[in-house]
Amino acid sequence: MSVYIEVLNENDNVPLSEEAVYYPSVVEDSPPGTEVLQIKATDRDKDPNQEITYKITSGNPEGFFAINLMTGHLILILIKIFVKLCVDIS
Known about the structure:
Elements: E1 2-8, E2 16-17, E3 21-22, E4 35-38, E5 41-42, E6 53-58, E7 65-67, E8 73-76, E9 86-89
GO biological process, one term: homophilic cell adhesion via plasma membrane adhesion molecules
GO cellular component, one term: membrane
Keywords: Calcium, Membrane, Transmembrane, Transmembrane helix
């Protein structure tokens, strides 16, 4: 399963994540709320008031995952999942 996450901000430079692609794993029978990973991005813009936000853009049609808009924490919502996970940052 591939989950695509978009990292956004509203100024000149594109935010950059530490990795272009993450390969986390989810242990079978993990409870809802289990953190899968945290995406960390930085922005080279000079305005410190510009915030980076995160959102899942595709690859999550069953709603297995949710991402915190401000922190980039990707969490497990549904527990009937046992797949290899690839998270692509675009």
